[in-house]
Amino acid sequence: MFDENQLTFQMVRRLDEAGNLLDEKDCGIADDLLVEMYRQMKEVRILDEKLLKMQRQGRIGTYAPFSGQEAAQIGSALALERSDWICPSYRDLAACFVHGMPIEQILHYVTGHLEGGKTPEDVRILPVQIIIAAQTLHAVGLSMATKLRGETDVAISYFGDGATSEGDFHEALNFAAVYKTPTIFFCQNNQYAISVPLKQQMASKTIAQKAIAYGVKGIQVDGNDIIAVYEATKEAVERARNGEGPTLIEAVTYRLGPHTTSDDPSKYREDGEREVWRKKDPLVRMKRFLENKKLWSDERENETEKAFHERLNEAITAVENESYPNISEIFDHVYETPDEQLKEQKEEAANFYRQKTGGVQIG
Q1: Which of 49, 160, 231, 251 is the least crowded, having the fewest Cβ atoms under 10 Å away?
Q2: 3-state secondary structure of 175
């Protein structure tokens, strides 16, 4: 007989909103890594706010901000090895940054530069996925390949709560469960699928419990607690490397900004809701924790902000001063060795623009 109480998941949490450990047990994470966690969160918050301003100034196209979700992305990404694969969605630039994506590459992507979708050879990140939940299948494919090769690398797929309503998510989870692929399904439950609140998306109490139907491990973690996120992901990664199969992690968090810059969240959010979550800001929580441990100070905060602003502004200037590739170069990164059809398409595009521009190739 079905017992709804058996589906109750206790949220994993290590820090309260004031930055205090919830039990006397030390977190077991080295001080330098704890500092690195906060520094990375601080830097990507600056990056996100800068890109949002640039979009409002008409310097980049539509943008999907991630402020509020830094702990979820950075805590999980730091639990990976550089040889592991990340399969991101359009809101996961923070995880990509931590895993080795250069700032210049991120800027190429948001400015619509052709090189923006070309990941550096030594960085294991798939191109940003726009199709909701499609990256879950890609992660399973990558992790299945590593398993067949006898390797120990894992693949993590980042997605939102809305993606769990897509067929791709369920197909990916089922395949991963059957073949015990080393896959981490990392759901950032930020409470909204664009404008649709979670309660209108599903009747289940948690997303983590969906793991039960497929016979895999499910974890619900406080997505604004970077220590809890790191530990939960580290455990899932170790299980995957040991051949124990996939894990579904639900990181409960909140998108402080709009879905994208074309969205107006005031149309669907209740008054005061955002301020309630502001008090749960992952940066504030971690900063207080570090201050309590005498690992952080206002002076270090100012130095971090100044250094990253300088680094970011230099990268922005360099990218904005670049000339755009010409139209025929869109075919250059499709295959390592272009086939005849691709060559024909490239030449056709080049000829078309020569005719349109009177012999001048344009970007």
Answers
A1: 49
A2: helix
Chain length of the chain:
363
pLDDT value at residue 2: 47
**SS3 category, 52:** helix
In terms of C-beta density within 10 A (0-12 exposed, 13-18 middle, 19 or more buried), how is residue 294 classed?
Answer: exposed
Residue 300 token pair: 């270090």
Which part of the chain is CATH 3.40.50.970? 9-320
| Spacing of C-alpha 245 from chain mean position | 22
| CATH of the structural domain 9-320, one choice from 2.60.40.10, 3.40.50.970, 3.20.20.80, 1.20.1560.10 | 3.40.50.970
**Cβ atoms 31, 293 nearer than 8 A:** yes
Reading the block at residue 126, the tokens are: 């798939």
- pTM for the model: 0.93
* Average pLDDT of adjacent 10-residue blocks, the chain of 363 residues: 63 93 83 98 98 96 96 98 97 97 95 86 94 97 97 97 97 98 98 94 94 96 98 98 97 96 93 92 97 96 98 97 81 88 91 72 46
What pLDDT, on a 0 to 100 scale, did the predictor assign at position 288? 96
* 8 A C-beta contact, residue 132 and residue 165: no
Class of residue 271 by CB neighbours under 10 A (exposed 0-12, middle 13-18, buried 19+): exposed
How far apart CA 221 and CA 187 sit, in angstroms, is: 10
User: Beta strand 196-197 with 155-160: parallel, antiparallel or unpaired?
Assistant: unpaired
**Residues known to be catalytic:** 255, 259, 268
